[in-house]
Amino acid sequence: MDVEVTRLPGIGTKQEFTTTAGRRIGVLTHRDGHRELLVSGREDPDACTASVGLTDAEGQALGTLLGAPNLVAQLQDQQREVEGITTAQFPVGAGSPYDGRTLGDTAMRTRTSTSIVAVVRDHVVSPSPGPDFTFRAGDLVVVVGTGDGLGQAAAILEGG
Amino acid sequence: MHSTALSLIELGALFFGLGVLGRVAGRLGISPVPLYLLGGLAFGAGGFLPLEGIEPFTGVASEVGVVLLLLLLGLEYSASDLVGGLRRSWLAGIVDMVLNAAPGAITALILGWGPLGALAMAGVTWVSSSGIVAKVLEELGRLGNRETPAVLSVLVMEDLAMALYLPITTAALAALGFAAGLRTVAIALGLLVVVLLVALRFGRVVSSVVESPSSEVFLLRVFGIALLVAGVASSLQVSAGVGAFLLGIAISEDTAENATRVLAPLRDLFAAVFFVVFGLNTDPRQIPAVLPAAIALAVVSTATKVGAGWFAARQIGVGRLGRWRAGAALVARGEFSIVIAGLALTTGSVDPGLAPLATTYVLLMAILGPVAARVVEPVHGAITRRLRPAPAT
Question: In the predicted model, what is the mean pLDDT of chain B?
Answer without folding.
Answer: 87
